Amino acid sequence: MATIDYISKVANDLTSKYHTRDPFQICKELDIKIRLKDLGQNIKAYYFYHSRIRNIVLNINVSETIRRILVAHELGHDRVHNEMAMLKGFQEIELFDRARPTEYEANIFAAELLIEDNELLGLLNDEKKTFFDVARELYVPADLLDFKFRVLKHKGYRVYAPYTATGDFLKHEVKGCYEDN
What we know:
By secondary structure, the chain is an alpha+beta fold. The chain has nine helices and four strands. Helix 1 packs parallel to helix 5 (about 100-115).
């Protein structure tokens, strides 16, 4: 099992090397192919490695905001679980399921990749903004922000999330908290 320190280092090394937090751009730089397909209602994304080609497949039916999170999550599998990924793909059936270590780690990676510490801390310093206001401003679900708070706590920051991430929040894709309706 990868540690938060290791996952954080991997995510931050990527953002430093490529000067972006955009998971689509990072995948392009790493030559990871991103494909859109109609995956029905149950699967939103998955990662697989085949013939030395790394692939992320996204369900064409999910929103742009959710795609960004899914790509960051699947990129986490590529970077943190690459040996395992060579043996089998990762399906998003249990995305954000904290009971599975690989999914928990990919969620931590996505939160660390997409949300920059100083930007988040600056937003949290505005006493008028709630946890949910900050999530909305960052265009992320509260669940992902909860994962970022776990990283910040690990780094020694005193932050409190009034919300605990659920294992299946992307299955329900609640609009309004992180994207325009």
